[in-house]
């Protein structure tokens, strides 16, 4: 859902979101909101080690991906640290987006998460009026980088093969098209930006290719990061998973002043057997 998603896609998403939002009962929303509000600000892990990938420049700062393992070598969290200056000196409005690829340490974290593709979108992207704010797309991939680079372009309104319904969390809508070297996107139409008067600050995308989920994607605006958040966002889970793997219970967006940096992470990873 980047540059190749056209106005027809925007209309489809907005119209479908309005219908789903209006059909969603308060009883469905309240448990989610209550759970979000009750989450602790930071999940405490015991006896973990953190392993870092290579550091690369971004903006006027640097960033690097990492994996946290428990004493058994199982991953408990994966994420990206960005120094505070990484949000400075980025392309501005009217300038081209930028992409960065970060690799997780090889042989760590059971090799489930392989790399991150981070997009900086100075003008946002489609659909208009929803995601057209300057923001980052943080893609956590569990396929090799070489496989991701082979994903072709598919223009909307054509659809890629969608994953089976049981593999989707409630409230997610599969969207048309394929972004080359990225994949297809399923959006959370229960996110606040799809409600009347709602504004995009953060959301969570499920990404797929040829009927298989291949990445998770927190999307976060630069303006929201600049508020120095300390958020833990509970994730809705599907009724089944396609593949064995380590899946997050929630994702976090945090700022630390010692030293000054931001962290975007998938946390409280749990092993789930695929079907």
Q: Determine the oligomeric state from the structure.
A: single chain
What percent of the residues sit in helical stretches (DSSP H or I)? 10-25%
Question: How many angstroms does the end-to-end distance come to?
Answer: 28 Å
List segments where confidence is low: pLDDT < 50 over at least 5 consecutive residues: 1-12, 18-42
- Determine the number of helices (DSSP H or I, runs of at least 4 residues): 4
Mean pLDDT across residues: 88
Beta-strand residue fraction: 35-45%
Number of domains: 1
Q: Tell me the number of strands.
A: 16
Q: Note the main sheet.
A: 7 strands, antiparallel
Structure description:
With 275 residues, the chain is mainly beta. It has one domain. 14% of the residues lie in helices and 36% in strands. It contains 4 helices and 16 strands. The strands form 3 sheets. Strands 1, 2, 3, 4, 12, 14 and 15 form a 7-stranded antiparallel sheet that branches. A 7-stranded antiparallel sheet has the order 5-6-7-11-10-9-8. It has a two-stranded antiparallel sheet with strand order 13-16. β10 and β11 form a beta hairpin. The chain starts with 6 loop residues before the first helix and ends with a strand. The model is unreliable at 1-12 and 18-42 (pLDDT under 50).
Overview in brief:
The chain has 275 residues and is mainly β. The protein has helices spanning 7-23, 26-38, 145-148, 222-225, and strands at residues 49-52, 56-58, 61-69, 75-83, 98-103, 115-121, 135-141, 172-174, 184-188, 202-209, 212-221, 230-234, 245-247, 250-257, 260-267, 270-272.
């Amino acid at each position: 859902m980047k540059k190749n998603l056209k106005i027809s896609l925007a209309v489809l998403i907005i119209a479908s979101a309005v219908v789903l939002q209006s059909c969603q009962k308060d009883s469905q929303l309240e448990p989610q909101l209550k759970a979000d509000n009750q989450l602790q600000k930071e999940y405490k892990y015991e006896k973990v080690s953190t392993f870092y990938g290579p550091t690369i420049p971004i903006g006027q700062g640097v960033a690097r991906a990492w994996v946290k393992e428990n004493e058994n070598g199982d991953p408990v969290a994966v994420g990206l640290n960005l120094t505070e200056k990484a949000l400075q000196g980025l392309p501005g409005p009217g300038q081209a987006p930028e992409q960065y690829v970060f690799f997780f340490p090889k042989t760590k974290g059971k090799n489930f998460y392989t790399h991150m593709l981070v997009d900086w979108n100075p003008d946002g992207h489609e659909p208009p009026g929803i995601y057209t704010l300057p923001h980052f797309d943080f893609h956590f991939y569990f396929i090799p980088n070489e496989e991701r680079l082979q994903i072709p372009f598919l223009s909307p309104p054509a659809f890629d093969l969608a994953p089976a319904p049981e593999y989707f969390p409630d409230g997610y809508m599969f969207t048309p098209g394929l972004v080359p070297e990225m994949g297809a996107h399923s959006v959370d139409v229960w996110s606040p930006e799809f409600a009347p008067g709602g504004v995009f600050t953060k959301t969570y995308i499920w990404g797929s290719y040829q009927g298989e989920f291949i990445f998770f994607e927190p999307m976060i605006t630069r303006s929201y990061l600049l508020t120095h958040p300390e958020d833990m966002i509970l994730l809705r889970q599907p009724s089944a998973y396609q593949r064995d793997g380590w899946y997050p219970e929630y994702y976090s967006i945090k700022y630390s002043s010692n030293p000054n940096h931001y962290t975007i992470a998938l946390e409280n990873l749990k092993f789930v057997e695929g079907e």
